[in-house]
Amino acid sequence: MRAYDVTLDETTALVADLESRYPVDLWIHPVNRLPAVRISTIRVQHDRNREGIGSQVMEELTRWADANGSVLVLTPASQGRGFPSKTKLKSWYRRFGFVPNKGRNKDYLYMDTMIRRPQAKANPTPLPTSDVDEYGARFVTGDPVTFRFARNTQKAPPPSSEDRFQQLIEPTGIYLLHIGPHRPPHGWTSGTATLHRPLVLPFNLGGYHRYDAESWKAVLSNYYGAKGKALTNRLREDGYDAVVTTGSGGGTEEIVVLEPSAISLSNPGLRRRLMR
């Protein structure tokens, strides 16, 4: 543990470094006579929202705090209409190790409502990612890509009692296949999708084409502690607009689009059918 105060020079240098590398406005400052830093503001530039920048900055702050043995404190407050609610902010901060400053976690040295103590390991193990080139399109986490897709317009059957295909935990969205120059199967619809910040990861960490504890659905559900629509929301909060899975054979497998606006159709009337 750090036994001395955090200095203003330290936090000023930290803010200058982060603001030079990310499109954000930061206001953090040391807590007098305590080994702690108060986070007052993390504001991402409006035209760069939903790119995961806030999460990247918070990860940098928590790594700095852990490396320097510093406590982080804050009090979530919504900035009004169009901004995340106080409840959503609390949930977001919890992902980085913050807990309510009350009950058994209460530290009377701080008046703030949430606190994060230094941790030996600042962040969870990162998500396993992959990349693939297929039919002239390159799928890499965080990189824009445009491709032709096909989608079965028939409604998926309800999940079985054993949930063989892990439908109960999968993120909600528009499920597609990448078809490149090929014709879509009979009865399927097709179109063009442009993903701005996809998350690309293996279909199964064990290299198998099956749904088990190492499938992409299980990995994401466990990583975010959510499923269904809640899982989709968590992925979107991190700036992802789609999930692309890759198989052991070197191509893509399931693709789920989290942002409907990424889909471009030759027949706009099909959009409502896709969203069912």
Describe this structure in words.
It is a single chain. With 276 residues, the protein is of the alpha+beta class. The protein has two domains: 8-116, 3-Layer(aba) Sandwich (Aminopeptidase), CATH 3.40.630.30; 131-274, no CATH class. It has helices at residues 8-21, 53-68, 86-94, 216-224, 228-237, 271-274; strands at 24-30, 36-44, 71-74, 99-100, 114-116, 131-134, 137-140, 145-152, 174-178, 188-195, 198-202, 242-246, 252-257, 263-264. The protein is built from six helices and 14 strands. Helices cover 22% and strands 26% of the residues. A hairpin with a 5-residue loop joins β12 (242-246) and β13 (252-257).
In short, what is this structure?
The protein is an alpha+beta fold and 276 residues long. The chain has 6 helices and 14 strands.
Mean pLDDT: 87
Tell me the β content.
25-35%
Distance between the termini: 53 Å
Biggest sheet statistics: 7 strands, mixed
Number of domains: 2
Which outline best applies? elongated
Protein structure class: alpha+beta
Q: What is the helix content?
A: 10-25%
Strand order of the largest sheet: 11-12-13-9-8-10-14
Task: Give the ordered list of helices and strands.
Answer: HEEHEHEEEEEEEEHHEEEH
Low-pLDDT stretches are none
Counted beta strands: 14
How many separate helices? Answer: 6
Radius of gyration over C-alpha positions, nearest whole angstrom: 22 Å
